[in-house]
Specification:
By secondary structure, the chain is of the alpha/beta class. It has 15 helices and 18 strands. Strands 14-13-15-10-16-17-3-18 form an eight-stranded mixed beta sheet, sandwiched between helices. The longest helix has 18 residues. The mean pLDDT is about 85.
């Protein structure tokens, strides 16, 4: 798919809701979506860093854009996908209700077999599918080829048993976003993005995210792309419905070390993107993250954390060409507006913006924590107490000395702290 402006239309063509709150109308979110889109669909390899207010809205936009970015970068089409099939392979075919079939290649308009590797595409009028339990073969026209998906599961039964009904909104949504006929939407995507984030964060986002498009139609992230979580051991845990058992488009993991393994793995679809969410993951990534950011095989790498993160400075020193989106006081003064749709998330976002804009550090000169005369008075009192016959004397003296040491090392007195 090659429409370069597709990702920039995300917040114009769609409304993004999270846990019932509309978030995509806010000016700062629109600007961030465009920033990530520019990083993903730029002509050259890119590294981008975002320092935001701390709102989950930025993480949501990052994930949605990364998912659509894979569809944008992938150059597969329906014809190419089925041309790679070999006779005897199992495939899925159907709209809402899919069934397993055996692939029998192509046929011309007279229903005679056509060899894909030696004949021109013009002679292929039908794709031929078979279920041994049925007397006749199924001949599908070109308009239906996009409904054929390679099957990578373990079942050998050629029917629909064990396959759940799928939603047909995926083709409809991608057709709108990319401006192509739904019949040209490929059933399989040949590229993927690795996402480094906490599993709970991703779980919450996919559960609460809804994208509204067209005439009040809605779709979830897992209706658009497949996803799996990868544990430290490399074990895969599939999200949602993936009846064809295709390679996931979004590969989620909680560690940069596991992300590196996924990027270097040459099996399955090609990894073109990396998204790291949270300063903790950046800090723990260390040299492995630096290595990943230098991988030429990655089309884009995007790192995102809150503006108060102290893990980004070192990364920017090693990535001189990185583009930066930073919610500084000056930037927010020029580009933030009051909530366009007031709800829980936009109100929180607005408060975070206000906190950054109004944040100020005041210098106050105060006396030291404790005077030497006061320390001497306490020591003399403890010396007198030590002479008395008292059961809890030793415990009291130990605690008293600990408290005195706290006062001695304090930058300012407790009284000043209480009045601050």
């Amino acid at each position: 798919m090659t429409n370069e402006q597709v990702l920039f239309r995300l917040t114009d063509e769609c409304d993004i809701y999270f846990e019932g709150s509309l978030i995509s109308k806010e000016r700062i979110i629109k600007m961030y979506a465009d920033f990530v889109a520019a990083s993903v669909c730029g002509g050259e390899r890119s590294v981008s860093v975002a320092l935001h207010t701390g709102s989950v809205c930025f993480d949501i936009v990052s994930l949605v854009t990364a998912a659509l970015g894979c569809l944008y970068i992938d150059d597969s089409d329906s014809n190419y996908i089925i041309e790679q099939l070999e006779i005897g392979n199992l495939v899925l075919y159907g709209g809402k209700k899919q069934e397993r079939y055996i692939w029998h290649g192509f046929a011309d308009k007279d229903y005679k077999p056509v060899l894909a590797q030696s004949e021109t595409l013009d002679r292929r009028h039908f794709a031929v599918l078979e279920q041994p339990t049925k007397a006749t073969k199924t001949y599908t026209t070109k308009a239906m080829w996009h409904l054929i998906t390679p099957y990578n599961g373990e079942s050998k039964i050629t029917d629909g048993r064990g396959l759940r009904k799928r939603k047909t909104s995926r083709n409809d949504f991608i057709s709108l976003m990319f401006g192509i006929p739904s019949t040209e939407v490929p059933s399989v995507t040949g590229v993927s993005t690795v996402i480094v984030t906490e599993r709970g964060t991703f779980d919450r986002i996919i559960k609460g995210l809804r994208i509204v498009y067209g005439d009040d139609k809605s779709i979830g992230l897992l209706d658009i792309v497949t996803a799996s979580y990868y544990a430290d051991s490399g074990e895969e845990y599939q999200y949602g419905n993936n009846p064809a058992k295709t390679n996931p488009i979004l590969k989620i993991t909680g560690k940069v070390s596991t992300a590196r393994d996924l990027v270097l793995d040459k099996r399955g679809n090609r990894t073109v993107g990396l998204v790291v969410i949270g300063s903790g993951n950046m800090a723990k990534g260390g040299s492995e993250l630096t290595d990943l950011l230098g991988r030429k095989s990655l089309r884009f790498a995007h790192l995102t954390a809150s503006i108060d993160s102290d893990s980004v400075e070192g990364i920017l020193e090693t990535q001189e060409d990185a583009t930066v989106f930073a919610c500084t006081k000056e930037f927010l003064l020029q580009n933030s507006l009051h909530p366009q749709d007031k709800n829980v998330l936009t109100t929180e976002l607005d408060q975070q913006i206000e906190n950054i804009i109004n944040n100020a550090v005041l210098t106050a000169i105060v006396d030291g924590g404790c005077l030497w005369e006061e320390v001497r008075t306490v020591r003399e009192a403890l010396y007198i107490i030590r002479k008395y016959d008292w059961n809890s004397k030793d415990s009291f003296i130990i605690i008293a000395y600990s408290l005195m040491n706290l006062f001695v090392t304090a930058v300012f007195s407790i009284e000043v702290l209480e009045k601050a």
